[in-house]
């Protein structure tokens, strides 16, 4: 198994998570601004998050607020 790696482009506000070095055979948009990259067997090999700073901020705030309620 490969070690996951993260890369972030501050200029474009894109977070890319690489799960595997396998060849990308396709991709699926799982929600607005989030795309999963798939290998030939359909396994997830990467995740790309557009507008990453907003996504992470909102996700963290939602989790914290949910825990407080």
Sheet with the most strands, sense and barrel status = 5 strands, antiparallel
Q: Outline the low-pLDDT stretches.
A: none
Order of helices and strands: EEEEEH
Instruction: Estimate the helix proportion, in percent.
Output: 10-25%
How many individual helices? 1
Strand content: 35-45%
Radius of gyration: 14 Å
- In total, how many domains does the architecture comprise? 1
Number of strands: 5
| Estimated structural class | alpha+beta
Overall 3D shape: elongated
The residue-averaged pLDDT reads 93
From the N-terminal CA to the C-terminal CA, the straight-line distance is 39 Å
Give the spatial strand order of the biggest sheet: 1-2-5-4-3
Short note summarizing the structure:
This protein has one helix and five strands; from the N terminus they run βββββα. It is an alpha+beta fold and 69 residues long. The protein has one domain (5-68).
Can you tell me about this structure?
It is built from one helix and five strands; from the N terminus they run E-E-E-E-E-H. The model has no long low-confidence stretch (mean pLDDT 93). Strands 1-2-5-4-3 form a five-stranded antiparallel sheet, with helices on one face. A hairpin with a 2-residue loop joins strand 3 and strand 4 (34-38). By secondary structure, the protein is α+β, with helices and mostly antiparallel strands. Helix content is 25%, strand content 41%.
């Amino acid at each position: 198994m490969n070690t996951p790696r993260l890369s972030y482009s501050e200029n474009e506000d894109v977070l890319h998570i690489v799960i595997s070095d396998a060849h990308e055979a396709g991709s699926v948009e799982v929600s607005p601004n989030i795309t999963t990259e798939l290998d030939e067997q359909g396994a997830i090999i990467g995740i790309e998050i557009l507008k990453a700073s907003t996504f992470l901020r909102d996700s963290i705030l939602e989790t914290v607020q949910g825990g407080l309620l």
